[in-house]
């Protein structure tokens, strides 16, 4: 068989190396879920914080193992270490700067990274000082060697759903909206802590014309998604995997959408899906069985995200590569996910369009042409 016939008959799928070169967009990534292990070790030494291992590779393995264990306690323990060492201005600046660098190195051109300011005040920082340190880190880490930005990073401020500080954090997000904070989020255990507990914060944000997303439909089912959208007015859904529960398949493979699923699709409500993380937490049985396959086919506004790059040992490129392997996605699919994400970002519409038309489409066109 000649090379020519192989090239002519086999349509080659994007490889991980090629995907890394594509201009990508990330909407759901936790700052405390992505520090470099060497940085955690350095910062732990400064603070006298005891880690499960002092070796970067072993520590990385420990994080992934704990996240994979199926034990919520062990999963939460991982954040006790990352959050535990991110308690000074220097630590926050460093972690945020490295986050921007790592995302840019992965080919991400626009990212929204989130964290909960209230978790970083143990060392004596005020909420405003926490926000300013992280913004400074993103600014430093976004610049290339020539001083030109390699990536644009927007911040989402998260309130913890089991705490009662959401109004304060929402006010903080509005206070810093013109200098890099682009939105608000709530995260934490879904069961027992419905988003409606924080209704005053969401109503305040709506009155301020501010944007927010809500972690919903990950561990907990449709009521959580319904509340997030219809009571709280969320612009986007963090995960939203369980919207799958409102879709029934007939014997001949036809999908029937319930009213909530139809609403989410018809209103083009973005789903911030995080395939590897969802498998680790049991929200999906495997990548191949992840609802993202069905939701993409049904044209929901699906986006692909990392959630916690350290715990899931992942990157946007790796998430894409796993989906290519599981579902046979080609460059058009990957561009579709990317444009979906950029359309769903919380920065002004003209700036989203400039990235779509000036960076994303030309970047994918170049890769498709080479493939
Ligand atoms: Zn998350």
UniProtKB/TrEMBL annotation:
The keyword Metal-binding applies. Substrate binds at residues 30, 32, 188. Binds 1 zinc ion per subunit. InterPro entries: A_deaminase, A_deaminase_dom, Ado/ade_deaminase, Metal_Hydrolase. It holds the Pfam family A_deaminase. It catalyses: adenosine + H2O + H(+) = inosine + NH4(+); 2'-deoxyadenosine + H2O + H(+) = 2'-deoxyinosine + NH4(+). GO terms for cellular component: cytosol. The active site is at 218 (proton donor). Residues 23-361 form the Adenosine deaminase domain. Its EC number is 3.5.4.4. One of its GO terms (biological process) is nucleotide metabolic process. Keywords: Hydrolase, Metal-binding, Nucleotide metabolism, Zinc. The record marks 239 as: Important for catalytic activity. The keyword Metal-binding applies. Zn(2+) binds at residues 28, 30, 215, 307. Its cofactor is Zn(2+). Belongs to the metallo-dependent hydrolases superfamily. Adenosine and AMP deaminases family. Adenosine deaminase subfamily. Catalyzes the hydrolytic deamination of adenosine and 2-deoxyadenosine. PANTHER family: ADENOSINE DEAMINASE (PTHR11409). This is Adenosine deaminase. It comes from Sphaerimonospora thailandensis. The gene is add1.
């Amino acid at each position: 068989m000649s090379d020519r016939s192989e090239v002519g008959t086999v349509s080659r799928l994007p490889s991980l190396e090629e995907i890394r070169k594509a201009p990508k967009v990330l909407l759901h990534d936790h700052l405390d879920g992505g520090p470099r292990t060497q940085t955690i070790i350095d910062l732990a030494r400064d603070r006298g914080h005891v880690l499960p291992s002092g070796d970067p590779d072993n520590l990385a393995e420990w994080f992934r193992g704990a996240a994979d264990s199926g034990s919520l306690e062990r999963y939460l323990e991982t954040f006790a270490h990352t959050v535990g060492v991110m308690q000074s201005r220097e630590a926050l600046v460093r972690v945020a700067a490295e986050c921007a660098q790592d995302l840019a190195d992965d080919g991400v051109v626009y990212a929204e990274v989130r964290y909960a300011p209230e978790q970083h005040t143990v060392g004596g920082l005020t909420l405003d000082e926490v926000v300013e340190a992280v913004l400074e880190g993103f600014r430093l880490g976004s610049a290339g060697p020539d001083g030109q930005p390699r990536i644009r990073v927007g911040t989402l401020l998260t309130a913890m759903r089991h705490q009662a500080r959401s109004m304060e954090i929402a006010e903080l997000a509005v206070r810093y909206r013109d200098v890099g904070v682009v939105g608000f989020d709530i995260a934490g255990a879904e069961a027992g802590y419905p988003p409606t507990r924080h209704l005053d914060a969401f109503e305040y944000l709506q009155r301020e014309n501010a944007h927010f997303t809500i972690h919903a439909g990950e561990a907990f089912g449709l009521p959580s998604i319904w509340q997030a959208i219809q009571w709280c007015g969320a612009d986007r859904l963090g995960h939203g995997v369980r919207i799958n529960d409102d879709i029934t398949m007939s014997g001949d493979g036809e999908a029937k959408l319930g009213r909530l699923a139809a609403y989410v699709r018809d209103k083009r409500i973005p789903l911030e899906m995080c395939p590897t993380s969802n498998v680790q937490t049991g929200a999906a049985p495997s990548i191949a069985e992840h609802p993202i396959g069905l939701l993409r086919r049904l044209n929901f506004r699906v986006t692909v995200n990392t959630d916690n790059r350290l715990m899931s040992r992942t990157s946007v490129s790796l998430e894409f590569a796993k989906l290519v392997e599981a579902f046979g996605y080609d460059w058009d699919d990957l561009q579709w996910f990317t444009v979906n994400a950029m359309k769903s970002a919380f920065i002004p519409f003209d700036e989203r369009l400039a990235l779509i038309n000036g960076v994303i489409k030309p970047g994918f066109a170049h890769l498709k042409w080479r493939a």
